[in-house]
Fold this sequence. Notes:
Number of strands: 11
Strand content: 15-25%
CATH superfamily of the largest domain: Pseudouridine synthase I, catalytic domain, N-terminal subdomain
Largest sheet: 7 strands, mixed
CATH architecture of the largest domain: 2-Layer Sandwich
Number of helices: 4
Shape: globular
Order of helices and strands: EEEEHEHEEEEHEEH
Helix content: 10-25%
CATH topology of the largest domain: Alpha-Beta Plaits
Amino acid sequence: MNKPYGVLSQFTPEAGSRWECLSDLVPIPRVYAAGRLDADSEGLLVLTDHGRLQKQLTDPKFGHWRVYWVQVEGSPNTDQLQKLEAGVIIQGKITKPARVRCLKEGNAPTVAEREPAIRVRKSIPTTWLEIKLKEGRNRQVRRMTAAVGLPTLRLIRHRIELPNGEPPLSIEGLNPGQWRQLSSKEAIRLMSLFKNPVADPRG
């Protein structure tokens, strides 16, 4: 699923919340998000009823690179990018090494307009970064960019990379709010992540 802005990564609404939830968009019972995105973040969610797969995709010990497109306020310099890659301290703990690169003119992502649109200050440029992480702490990307003086304006999880050179799971071809069933090849690739695959009793 390509989760849009303003939607919680859960199927049950929160009392008093202004956000929508996944049940407003996905009419499939008994599935859950394998990994979360904050309501103000967008992009790839894998929805599954397979408990082992959910753990495999979200537990940092399995080390899948999660790839984010991040629109930040300002023009990053080499020092800021190196700090993001080496690790910065957020909530009293240093982040694990990341992979970071600027997506400059001609290489910037083509994405749908967000509703509502991001705030833009005419006097300050914005820049798209690609940030790859193997961990997913609470609001980690936003805290990381803020720590080096680059406030995040928009955050999109573009893909999850799989081991052994397998094609990644990505939001390519999905507009915000759209979802699709995994292809049989994608399902086989995901099940091959298990060293000793076991049939899930729920199918």
